[in-house]
Design goal:
2 copies of one chain form a homodimer.
Chain A lengths: L4 H17 L5 H5 L8 H13 L3 E2 L8 E2 L1 H11 L7 H12 L5 H16 L3 E6 L6 E8 L4 E8 L4 E7 L6 H14 L10 H10 L7 H16 L2 E5 L13 H23 L5 E4 L12 E11 L2 E10 L4 H20 L16
Antiparallel strand pairs in A: 1-2, 3-7, 3-10, 4-5, 5-6, 8-9, 9-10
Helix pairs in contact in A: 1-3, 1-4, 5-11
Chain A binds a DNA duplex (30 and 30 nucleotides) through helix 3.
DNA sequence: CTAAGCACACTATACTATAGAGTGCTAAAA
DNA sequence: TTTTAGCACTCTATAGTATAGTGTGCTTAG
């Protein structure tokens, strides 16, 4: 059977009607659309064929049709008209992004919130970290008696600091010696290389301020370890409850719980070699729980070899045109923002995921 | 009418039965309790009187009774038996808290998650910041050509840093001059005092590295401004969906939305002069939306003049004994942890609330 | 090839009947 | 005087039934 132009028109109308009403679409509703010049009977025939072709589904014999996964797929790939952002939308996205953000984790949270707001769906944002960052340089600042500030510069342009209070009286000169030792022995190492043996070696040559070394080493290891993991944020989970398909609390809960765990962890892998905006329709989904849930994701550039990703999760019925348009625009704006010189530098940031 | 011992026993039984079943409690169920030596008819009489006294309510004539707000209040204040944490529970709480946490905001998030986990309810945690923190000292580190690290020490023991990249070639000596100027003119000031006039003044005396000044000043203002606001985190909102009273999506959504906004902002005020654990039962609540929702809050000490607060939100029917016990234990453990020297120092942290 | 008409299928809704739980009251027992 | 047993009554939740409405598929006519 051939997919004629008319069939495409019908399918597109059905998808769009279904997106806006969340109810199965009947032949009459399609026939009554402004520029549909055929009667409901004709539409009915087309719908019957679209059903056998697998693009439509029927919840039960005497109900209207709803798009199948294949139907959505076709819609997204071929039929969907590009949604044009209004000036207002574009403007408010840009404005929101322009706010100053100091740390990557803070920023990811903010971005997730913004995306969620813009799409009225739960959103996630991920910033992949550059693998294998090491310490470029240590710096110790004397900040009062018994108080030392440790500043650690990493190879990926991040800087972290820690205030250390010790009852040891360390003077400028001891700190100078210590930082020289640190820079000589502890830079360029992977977190696994911070062994007890190294600790001992460094301590023995560290001079009077040796008692600072264990604290410094523990902190550094911790920081490097966190560098390895991606930075993620989820926002607006509650918005899912606004969608009619999640009126069932159990279902909403299942999906949202999954959102916290699996999806987040899997998405980077899914997007590995993808570029642009990707739409994952329902059953194409990795996780079984997200079977009738779609995911739309886009990548953006952070610079310094870091990759960002924003995405939203919603019912298979979501308004793909709007969502992809907004997401792409977001990604574009973010990439642009990061390309600007004043924003290139993002000091230290880290998060932990558990629950 | 007098509140006899027996009435109290009955009330207590009813509250506890209702807590565990979430169903109105009938006289028969109470009479059948192991150590209840009266018949259902007697209990019925008592229940009738407890109802006229305002401690119980009847959803409708031929249903069992449920505790009124006054009933819960009495239960929480007088009747509730202290719940004893098992070794296991105490242990797992302690273990969870011991993980290293670097920043206040990170820690608040973690604490909220832990509390939520321990109570199976949405949890919030707040760290009030010390008002009026100012800059104690600036430090500039040369970190490669065109790259400077700014380290700002605040009076409240926090330290923040920022990597600045500028095409200006600044040498050690220029930075030394600049940092001297900064320390002379920009320390001890409130964020409002960072005026354009100040900027101009500082720039004119800053020497060759003057172009760094605007960036530094903007960053500092930002940091100080963030110091003023409290640090909050919400976690486990989804857990509310597990409670039978929130099977209605709309209701759950309303409550959770409120949780994000009002409550968070109001709680510090409510707890102003309170100490220990406070239980706010349903209608005693500030917000109208939280009418049949209870809140349990406890304070803890962070040190450095900072105050922490953890709390959970749940149905009025929640298990107050368990929740208060766990919350108090949490608060105690946290206070202890912060009292330890290694944890006294908490470098910079900040968050933003919007949605 | 398109449209009109009609019988049939199925769901959602309102309505009804019934079982079950719980109460309040009265009267008897302790 | 307090407690308990018994019983009529109330109210809800549940299942079962009838009905209106929507939509389909097929047949037939334009």
């Amino acid at each position: 059977m051939e997919l004629t132009e008319r069939k495409k028109r019908v399918l597109r109308s059905i998808v769009e009607l279904y997106i806006s009403t969340a109810e199965p679409v009947g032949s009459k509703a399609v026939a009554e659309l402004p520029d549909m010049k055929y009667s409901s009977a004709t539409i009915r025939n087309e719908m019957a064929e679209l059903t056998t072709m697998g693009y439509l589904e029927q919840p039960h014999t005497s109900a209207g049709r709803i798009p199948s996964a294949a139907g959505y797929r076709l819609y997204v790939d071929e039929l969907m008209a590009g949604y044009r952002l209004s000036m207002d939308e574009a403007h408010s996205i840009n404005e929101a992004i322009e706010a100053k953000m100091q740390r990557v984790d803070e920023m990811m949270e903010r971005v997730a919130k913004l995306v969620s707001q813009a799409t009225d769906l739960p959103a996630i944002s991920v910033a992949s970290r550059q693998r294998g960052a090491t310490v470029k340089r240590f710096e110790l600042i004397l900040a009062g008696q018994g108080t030392v500030i440790l500043v650690v510069m990493l190879t990926n342009e991040e800087v972290v600091n820690k205030l250390i209070k010790l009852p040891v009286l360390a003077g400028e000169s001891e700190l100078k010696i210590l930082s020289a030792v640190l820079n000589a022995t502890m830079t360029g190492l992977a977190p696994e290389e911070f062994t007890p043996e190294l600790l001992e070696r460094v301590m023995s040559s560290a001079g009077e301020a040796a008692s600072l070394v264990p604290v410094i080493m523990e902190f550094t290891t911790e920081v490097l370890r966190k560098q390895g993991s991606a930075n993620m944020a989820v926002a607006g989970q509650l918005r899912l409850l606004g969608q009619p398909e999640y009126r069932d609390v159990d279902k909403a809960q299942r999906v949202l719980t999954t959102l916290d765990e699996e999806t987040l962890a899997n998405l980077p892998a899914v997007m590995q070699n993808q570029s642009g905006t990707k739409v994952i329709v329902g059953p194409e989904n990795v996780s079984q729980e997200l079977k009738d849930t779609s995911v739309v994701i886009t990548k953006f550039d952070i610079g310094d070899g870091m990759q960002g990703m924003i995405g939203v999760v919603g019912p298979t019925r979501m308004d793909y045109a709007k969502v992809t348009a907004r997401l792409s625009y977001f990604a574009e704006s973010l990439s642009k923002m990061f390309a600007k010189p004043e924003h290139t530098e993002l000091p230290a940031g880290k998060t932990e995921e558990e629950e």
